[in-house]
Amino acid sequence: xxxxxxxxxxxxxxxxxxxxxxxxxxxxxxxxxxxxxxxxxxxxxxxxxxxxxxxxxxxxxxxxxxxxxxxxxxxxxxxxxxxxxxxxxxxxxxxxxxxxxxxxxxxxxxxxxxxxxxxxxxxxxxxxxxxxxxxxxxxxxxxxxxxxxxxxxxxxxxxxxxxxxxxxxxxxxxxxxxxxxxxxxxxxxxxxxxxxxxxxxxxxxxxxxxxxxxxxxxxxxxxxxxxxxxxxxxxxxxxxxxxxxxxxxxxxxxxxx
Length: 257
Known about the structure:
The chain is mainly alpha-helical and 257 residues long. The protein is 67% helix and 2% strand.
């Protein structure tokens, strides 16, 4: 257990850095809650060892079975995320909008040596949620492990769902770490398009990433279009997005009749 605990702490130290994004931060916070329970258990067992003459190794083993299982599951998850990040850093997977990010950073006068752009290739956002979901599918016969990973998936999903809600309700993307399933190409501006920008601009400015959580995979195109429609209204400045949502709902009801 101690080996797993130390490894998990090292994982949290890395994944908790600013550049890994809100999804990883939320996952780390969820893991820390489980580690806190483990530390409380250690203190309780130490108290039993010092005060209870009937405390034996067998009793110790019985009390630590569930904690050991929990640490093993979190350790295995951390290894999987770290291995995925290592594969991406080795060049097996690259984010196609790295070039646009570099251009934006140069225009803003930011220092590229800080590693912010390179850290965009790490396992985060939708990749983490996909990995968690995949692991859940493989341990369906282990209720304890499933409960742990389900709780971690819920914790990690909250920031992602917040970005999704902004996109679906306002047509805006607040995603500085490149975690969301919709990629916004900020380098593509209407002023740069020589002619009719209406189709080309909206097709190229917002595209789908590959790392989409499995839960959203069947709806990815609808999610992309829903935010695009609201963004069109927002860019034109002719109507409030809340009013636009009401219009879209009314149109949907009419079409359903």
